[in-house]
Input
Amino acid sequence: MSGMDESLSPQKSRITIYDEPVVCSFCLHDVYIPYEVFVNVEEPGVNVRHVRYIAICQHCGQAKYFGDPSHFDANKGVFIWALNQYLISIRSYKIKILFYVSKKNNDKITGFTNKLIQDFGVEKENINISNLKGVAELQIKISSLNEIQEVRSHIMHSAKKLYITIKDLTIN
Ligand SMILES: [Zn+2]
Output
């Protein structure tokens, strides 16, 4: 992508400024919705675009302010576009997790289920739990901005934290 001569559109996206990704300083996520902010500029420079943005981190809600440093490079005689925007669409995943549990108590199932509900914002009707002879099965439908690998590693990480041993994990 060489650059863009349009304003950033207010959609979920990753944004770069001179190819550097805009990353949230609070949660390190990089998905934003940018909004154009109008400012009064008394003497707008000829070669600088006076566009300002406020971008809202879609993970933690923190706001980030930045301008558009696109400018005319007099030496090279070309206009340098600074901002790029990569739109992100929400994907749906079907997840099936098989994991080992003790036959006596269901604490691990409850704990793991609650963790996933919290992390992925799952609705109750999108979860199916069954427990058969020491192996529990969780089936979940989620919507996420993340890639399948990120979803997978997130689940593995949560399981590890709760001392859960996964027998099988399929996501599609
Ligand atoms: Zn954030």
